[in-house]
Amino acid sequence: MIGTLISFSLMAIGARELSGNISTYQVLLVRSVIGLCVVSFLIFASKQKELFSTNRLPLHSMRNVFHFGGQFGWFVGIGLLPLSEVFALEFTVPLWTALLASLFLGESLTLKKMTAIALGLLGVVIIVQPTQDVISVGAIIVLCAAFCYAVAHTSTKSLASTEAPLTILFYMCLIQLPIGLILSWQVWKMPSALESVWLLLVALSALSAHYCLAKAMKNAEVTLVMILDFFRLPAIAVVGILLYDEPLTPALIIGGVVMLFGNLLVTYKSNRRNQ
């Protein structure tokens, strides 16, 4: 999960730098092309060509349609809202994921998980301080993206039981590439040298983020993974402060502490059980 946190933070920086200059559809297309090349190379290098095959194409397809929608909303939100607010709104994902995992994967919603999720969402409310100003187009887009991500994460957990992480990544890039190609056809712009660097960073950090996430979900319940994912908020808050002069508000600090307590609670309980 540490690799996931670092990768998503780098991807957010790249998305912010590209916002307003390169179409979101083009960003998603480029990351799919680069990702497909990198993953294919890794599979060939591992001499495990069976990783190119799958018996679960329908689930891969569903996962990646929702995942593409989630990515689109996330990238658009990065350009409309402060980084910390985008990540805070995105943290409704664990609630949707927990409910979806309970409905479709048979995972139990224990009291400690629900407590940790409730603390996490309370932290989000403290940070966002819901007012009429928050219910903006950007906020609605990010909230819709959060639900799409929850569907994708739940599908990833199911796929991870039978598929290798590289297989999941290969089909993610393969399925999303034509979607991005169709949508970016009319808005394509030749990137500058600097924009090309940012596009490469977005593509590689996205790839590493999903590889780490797939590995984490293979070794832990999806709800636990998503609860630990709350650590992304304080990380991106620091990025926003240092790089974009975004304010460190008392609400952000208090909300971050509340979410951190929820993370520590579920992690401590999980470690006690494993011991």
What are the key terms here?
275 residues, mainly alpha, 0% strand, membrane, EamA_dom, transmembrane helix
Brief description of this entry?
The protein is mostly helical. It contains 12 helices and no strands.
Structurally, how many domains make up the residues?
1
Terminal CA distance reads 21 Å
Query: What is the share of helical residues?
Result: over 70%
Helical run tally: 12
Low-confidence stretches: none
Please state the average pLDDT score: 84
Shape: globular
Overall radius of gyration: 18 Å
Number of strands: 0
Would you list the SSEs in sequence order as H and E?
A: HHHHHHHHHHHH
Strand content: under 5%
How does the major sheet shape up?
none
Structural class: mainly alpha
Overview of the structural elements:
- With 275 residues, this protein is mainly alpha-helical.
- The protein has one domain.
- The chain contains 12 helices and no strands.
- It is globular and about 50 Å long.
- The mean pLDDT is 84.
- Keywords: Membrane, Transmembrane, Transmembrane helix.
- Residues 2-128, 138-267 form the EamA domain.
SSE layout:
Blueprint: H1 2-18, H2 24-46, H3 57-80, H4 83-90, H5 93-104, H6 111-128, H7 137-160, H8 165-184, H9 193-219, H10 222-228, H11 232-244, H12 250-274
Helix pairs in contact: 1-9, 1-11, 2-8, 2-9, 3-7, 3-8, 4-11, 5-7, 5-10, 6-12, 8-9
